[in-house]
Amino acid sequence: MPVNVSVSDFGTLPDGSMVQAVTLSAGAVRATILTLGGILQSLQMPGRDGCCAEVTLGHDDVAGYLTSRSYPGAIIGRTAGRIAGGRVSVDGVTHQLSQNEGDNTLHGGAQGFDRALWRLVAAMVEDGAAVLRLSHQSTAGDQGYPGALTVVATYRLDAAGLTLALAATSDAPTPVNLTWHPYWNLSGAGTPVGDHVLQLDASAYYPSGAGQVTAGAAPVAGTVFDFRVPQQLGDILASADPQAVAAGGIDHVFVRGSGTAAVLSHPASGRRLTVTSPAPALVVYSGVGLAGGPPGHGGQVIGRHGGIAFEPQALPDALPVLRPGATFDWQMTLGFDTD
Ligand code: G6D
């Protein structure tokens, strides 16, 4: 399989810094990643008709990413999800984090990892794969978090698919719960994902409470969130189930089993996305709040439910604390195939 890596300038940040774009290709799959936020800006894959379509939501300029409130394609940190009141306690000391969603902290605060300019460490062909390595240094006190955190992100594309691996180390105890936030629309047309079919390896989920801060886990059996059997997304997005109505669709934490985390398919095109990760939880977000954001690829209007995100992460009631000498490892692998 032909594998290639190329680097180009994408655009400048308000302070004049250049954002670079690195394109990894393996066969008919092509991924473009930005040094801004480690963002997956584009993913092109073939369908039944052979031609390649854009299947991840993104923007064609830096302004789109700085304007968006949906974290399209971004590496999320230090802590994914919501933290009530933005307060975390580490070893008995309470830290007030950046509160960027009312009183809560969402996805690492107002200037989370999605807004950082990551350092391009290496872009190369290695062992038959197209590889990109980025790094980010989050200083002590960044967004209110204790300790200085160093993160290395490694994207790897080969015949097996696209893997993102994250490795973090810290010089003091700090909460860490990293994830990745690409949105997927396998139609390539940007139409709502109601025509996609989803299967999840999850027998429990966390119903959302006030402010979308989750309470305890509950079985999916007997609920519209039972995706152990494949379901058409349109059925849940239009469901009268109180949890689906309150979230406007799907915006829930699912408790992972030991199998493939998620399989998303688009019967009309034959495209299928397979998600695997060792993380114990998977947030599934059906893009409830995507409408009204900046234009997508080629000026495409991104509407409500215009994409679906799968965010492997820690369980919401078990926020990991990383201590000096340890490494926080996280990984997600995406398989792309066509029936
Ligand atoms: C995550 O679960 C959250 C959503 O609630 C949020 O709106 C989105 O990120 C931007 O998926």
Automatic annotation (TrEMBL):
Pathway(s) the chain acts in: Carbohydrate metabolism; hexose metabolism
Family the UniProt entry places it in: Belongs to the aldose epimerase family.
Keyword Isomerase: yes
E.C. number(s) listed in UniProt: 5.1.3.3
Molecular function, one GO term: carbohydrate binding
Record PANTHER family: ALDOSE-1-EPIMERASE, GALACTOSE MUTAROTASE
GO BP term, pick one: galactose catabolic process via UDP-galactose, Leloir pathway
Keyword Isomerase: yes
SUPFAM superfamilies reported for this sequence: Galactose mutarotase-like
Reactions catalysed: alpha-D-glucose = beta-D-glucose
Protein name: Aldose 1-epimerase
GO CC field: cytoplasm
Binding site residues for beta-D-galactose: 181-183, 251
